[in-house]
Amino acid sequence: MKHLGLTFLCVVFCFAVSQAVAEKKIVCYLGTWAYYRWGVGKFTVDNIHTGLCTHLMYAFFGINEDGTVRIIDPYLDLEENWGLGYVKRFNDLKKLNSELKTMAAIGGWNEKSLKFSKVSADPVLRKKFIDDCVKLCQTFGFDGIDLDWEYPSQQDSPSLDDKDNHAIWLEEFRVEFDRHGLLLSAAVASAEFSSGLSYHIARVSAALDFINVMTYDLHGPWDFQTGLNSPLYEGPADVTERQKQMNTNASIQYWLSQGADPKKIILGIPLYGRTFTLAREQENHIGAPINGPGMAGPFTREPGFIGYNEFCDMFAKENWDIHYSQEQVGFYAVKGNQWIGFDNVETIEAKVQYMHDNDLGGIMVWSLETDDYHGLCGPRYALMNTVYRLVNHGAEPPAPPPAVTTPVPPTGPTGPNVGECDPAGIFPNPDSCQKFFVCTEDGRRFDFECPDGLLFDPVNLYCNWKDAVHCELL
């Protein structure tokens, strides 16, 4: 009986511990456009390590002004017309991990705010959009929706009614999603001056299953000086009230002070850095003057942005001076007039501990495709393995999937123009700045058109805002 009693106590205790661990979420966004990157920067659904995340977010779907969900990239997302069927393949990942939840992220920075504002202001359109979200989940097998409106009353929507309409909309989502057993989350602004403008935080918290607080992009080349992308605390260069809000701790504490349930707060961590070009090489501290964005990564190809998989390899091969800010718990690197503020294993350790210390709901990462998933400069999935291990109190991560180094070709029957398109890749249409075409490896060509208001960016190889694109045809 003594042994049976000890066994029973152990079972109860171990179950309680496992339940406590399971309550902490690891929310992972996938930027699906990484499929179009070159070489080892290409990231496909098959590169996802399904054992490292509790929730996978498919980014992004869009919104139409008529209150329907918009498919942004039909070639990538769908199977029709020889498409890649990414949505189906993404949701099929649950066959590899029965505990995994998949969610459709709707919005994002490039989707802006105005269409969300118009739909949220109309009760009929709000209901239509909610119903279309339910249909999206039921059709493709998503477990819920992540509403990524960036941001109510901001960007191209100055309407101060957005804050009220956003809260009402989420509450209506909650009622309908409860009927269908669907999850509802949102990616939200972090700093007080932004989130205070956009959200009724207590109502948002009550309506959502969890809240993905985007505690990154707190500094970047849009500033007039260098700054860490995602500092944990404020630093000596933060002298104004606004600057003092631009850190993870201040953001999280503001959300908590406004009535957010700590167990619903998911702390965001970037798997990328922000780059700057220094105005003067000799002035390279945090808060140094800049001339604009810095170098682009070889795979992501976006000035001012660089993935962990890009800079960790670069640091190993080149002579960069690495500095640590003890006050802000963050790293920056300097070489000549180039400056990079970044997160790594050490800062992730501090942020996960912060999550535990404040009894938050878990960790969110943006985004999987910029982790070192090929092991270019260390263990594969170095950052995500760190997140998993520390969120789960030292538990070893599951074994990774086999390495994928070659792209998966499109499925379905042979398409038109076989053998007429060479080489493989993404190319601008010579007759229209709004159009582009994709050449597959077997010589097929598929033509696409950017949504209204966007042009094809031949540098970054995606649809971009007009003022960011130089097109000779304009």
Characterize the structure shown.
The chain has about 475 residues and is an alpha/beta fold. Helices cover about 30% and strands about 20% of the residues. The chain contains 13 helices and 20 strands. It has an eight-stranded parallel barrel with strand order 1-2-4-5-6-7-8-15, surrounded by six helices. Strands 9, 10, 11, 12, 13 and 14 form a six-stranded antiparallel sheet that branches. Helix 5 packs across helix 6, helix 6 runs parallel beside helix 8 and helix 12 runs parallel beside helix 13. The longest helix is centred in the N-terminal third of the chain and has 22 residues. The radius of gyration is 23 Å and the shape is globular. The protein starts with a helix and ends in a 9-residue tail after the last strand.
